[in-house]
Amino acid sequence: MFTKKEIIDILKDNTQNEQLFELADIVRHNNVGDEVHLRGLIEFSNTCKCTCHYCGLRAKNKNIERYRIPPDDIIKYAKNAAELGFKTIVLQSGEDNFYTRKIMCKIISEIKKLNIALTLSIGERNFEDLKAFKDAGTDRYLLRIETTDENLYKNLHPGMDFNNRLNCLYNLQKLGYETGSGCLVGLPNQTIESLADDILFFKENNFDMIGIGPFISHPDTPLKDAPNGNFTLSLKVMALVRILMKDINIPATTAMETLHPQGRIIALQSGANVVMPNVTASKYQNKYEIYPNKSHSGEKNKCANCLENKILSIGRTVSNNYGFRNTV
Ligand code: 5AD
Fold this sequence. Notes:
This protein is of the alpha/beta class. The chain contains 13 helices and eight strands. It has helices spanning 4-12, 17-32, 71-83, 101-112, 127-135, 150-156, 162-174, 192-205, 231-244, 254-259, 263-268, 282-285, 304-313; strands at 35-45, 88-93, 117-121, 140-142, 178-185, 209-214, 274-275, 317-318. Strands 1, 2, 3, 4, 5, 6, 7 and 8 form an eight-stranded parallel β-sheet that branches. 5'-deoxyadenosine is lined by residues 54-55, 144, 146, 184, 213, 215-216, 218, 255, 290-291.
């Protein structure tokens, strides 16, 4: 276990980065093995009621064509993904009240008939909704805390409440979800100290999955003039999470690939063991612009092999199981 001071020192010192990444890779190999879990990501609605300062889907962005995939089509796309061999489907959207408890439960129960694991990533919901989604068969839920610096959180998320987000994460754990969280790296005014707090927060709460990605500036947001986050720093935060949380699932995030052409492969060699290829129908893909140049390389269905080949080329295999925590 590292102290906060040690984490800060590691994040600030760039002379031993390669050793850090190598250690994270060894910890990953020893604890979750060489299998890479592919999760098929369906971005089913880019409609969002929030106004997060960094996000291109923010309600106040008028330069975005909004879409909502009809429930029957979501089910159909999930079926296609299952037929392609995906063992997990991730349903992600903005915070969109159109998809009520009832509508979501219908989608969930239909998708669960496909014999695959199901992850939701649809923002904050009340306890009753989360309970209903769990009862309908949902296995996992992703909700990044984004930053544990409460002041920064408040400034970046107008109208949102840090404690509400925490409660939502605790509710997910209480309800028996495999719970994922994570943070952005390189937000304006974010300190190295607060990144150390983020890492310790993940460890203390023993989350099952942690997604780390660099902040990428979006031209249609209040942070349009802010510099992008740093790829190496994001990788270091991720590597530290792996070293501290040996058996969890860690995705090589798409944002990593946006900042570096080999970003996800490098992440897979620095602690990550999950990739979430986008299986959303291509007519919607360009419209889900959380940040610009969201990588699509190797993600279109026909290109699934490119990703698999890359994974094989670094001595890893593509998992054929559900990839729950602790199932090596
Ligand atoms: N750059 C990088 N990641 C972003 N996200 C939202 N906006 C951005 C951005 N501009 C991330 C958030 C959210 C996830 C779905 O996308 O961390 O939780």
